[in-house]
Amino acid sequence: MTEPAAVTTDTTLAELGDHPAEPAPVEASGGWRELFSRRHAAAASILAGGVALYAMNLYFTAALMPSIVADIGGARYYAWVATGFLMAAVIASMLVSRLLDRLGAARAYVLGFLVFGAGAVLNALSPSMPALVLGRVVQGLGGGLVAGLGYAVIRSALPERLWTRAAGLVSAMWGVGTLVGPSLGGLFAQLGAWRGAYVLLLVAALVLAALARRVLPGRSGEGRGSGPVPLPSLLLLTLAAAAFSISSTVPGGWATAVCILAGVALLVGFVAVERRASATVLPQQTYRAGHPLKWLYLTVAVLCAGVVAENFIPLFGQELGGLGPLVAGFLGAAVSAGWTTAQLFSVGIESARGRARAVRTAPLVLVGGLLVYGLLQTGDASGARVALWALALFVAGTGIGLAFPHLSVAAMRSSSDPAEGGKAAAAINTTQLIAFSVTSALAGTLVNLGTDSPVDSARYMTFGIAGITVLGVATAALTARRLGR
Is residue 19 part of a domain? Predict the structure, then answer.
């Protein structure tokens, strides 16, 4: 997309948050009170609600799966229930900016919620596991869309002085989903009403769709058209996500290695195609020489890699700490709890230097928490040691929360062009989903390396993920250099 010269100059000066904000009215505080005021509360609720619905659904279905398999069978398709959802969400997240440009915020959200609701109906009526997988794919398409819109619509739905707090609220919903999803899914499973659980999701989607239609803006007319869909990039990235997802379902050894290597090769091919294409998944400025947006996305990816540990922590809590399923589930949510808590404070950092310091510190805190958790692993752990696990995981999560709101807002401000700024914000969600998919597959492989030793499995997984997040120390420093200006 070619930008006018004036816009290009302004973009250079405004890279990653250096764009001068419009002066806010004297009476505007830009605080939580204003965000939840009568004027903005409905819009903020939709942005947060869409992401919460998506995040909760990830853990919601995991808690229901034993009951579902007992009812309709199909245990061999167990892994594909999650894989189908995730792959569809990745595809949908890449189309967020284009649908937003063509439909406007209100209609794009209504479409996303209705597609999500249609998937919930298919799930509730599923007579077999293949039918459930189909419903999960449809749900993933709607879920990926509303999750991506949660970041992309902040810019058009709220004044700039509220962007940071709105971004913190939206990303906090990942933590809320982690806490609410397992408990709510477990409740429906306990009641033997797994189909009713999806009816509840349908009702929530319809309520949010109606609210979005009433309060969100339509087409702004500011964009210049979203252009063609980047099919080559989309195909490569989808195949990469599939390869990494399949790697966790095939027997360990060469089959797993081949899948992972294929996924890496496809990601390299994706970047190569993106650099030369006129239609791209990520904003074109990501691939400009010297532009820091690439470091921002890499920082988001490595921070999100730390969250993947939550998928296995409940397992280790039961095997090594003797915890019950419910308590082990809440132990797994400790990372997200730290993420949510930290960012509620981090959004109050207003100085450029303070924001840069938060981003630079974040990966160090995350790595430190993971390393302590890994070192504390032992069999037959006492209650005191389990409490230390929870504390270390909570600290690790605070590292993510320190940086995430500022990274989201920096993406929005990476261009003075509203269309490019929205696309940059939507790409935050795409980056998250890809990071989850890739790291989940790698974590599964690391767990398998422990063979019959749960302690070794826990340490391989934890130290492996910590090794990935160490990369964020360098990328965060490069990103913070711009934020501190």
Answer: no
Q: Give 165-221 pLDDT, tens digit per residue.
A: 887 788 778 767 767 876 777 778 778 888 998 999 999 999 999 998 888 876 654
Question: Cβ–Cβ contacts within 10 Å for residue 24, how many?
Answer: 14
pTM score: 0.71
Same domain, 238 and 170: no
Nearest residue to 347 (alpha-carbon basis) of 220, 162, 137, 134? 162
**Alpha-carbon 73 to chain mean position:** 30
Question: How far from 236 is each of 6, 19, 125, 232, 280, CA to CA, in Å?
Answer: 34, 34, 33, 6, 12
Confirm if 133 and 81 have CB atoms less than 8 A apart.
yes
User: Is residue 10 included in any domain, yes or no?
Assistant: no
Please name the amino acid found at residue 165: R
State whether 223 and 82 are in the same domain: yes
Question: Are 363 and 459 part of one and the same domain?
Answer: yes
Domain membership of residue 326 as a residue range = 290-485
Structural domains counted in the chain: 3
User: b or e along 203-237 (b: 16 or more beta carbons within 10 Å of the residue's beta carbon)?
Assistant: ebbeebbebbeebbeebeeebeebeeebebbbebb
| Judgement on whether residues 270 and 343 belong to the same structural domain of the protein | no
- Residue 4 falls inside a structural domain: no
Of how many residues is the chain composed? Answer: 485
* Cα–Cα distance, 447 to 445 (Å, whole number): 5
Contact 135/82 with Cβ under 8 angstroms? no
Same domain, 357 and 385: yes
Long-range contacts of 251-254 (CB under 8 A, 24+ apart): 252/445, 252/448
Burial class, 143, CB count within 10 angstroms (exposed 0-12 / middle 13-18 / buried 19+)? buried
Residues 263 and 353 in one domain: no
Rounded to the nearest 10°, the torsion over CA 109, 111, 112, 113 is: 90
Question: DSSP secondary structure string, 271-291?
Answer: HHHHHH-SS-SS-GGGGSTT-
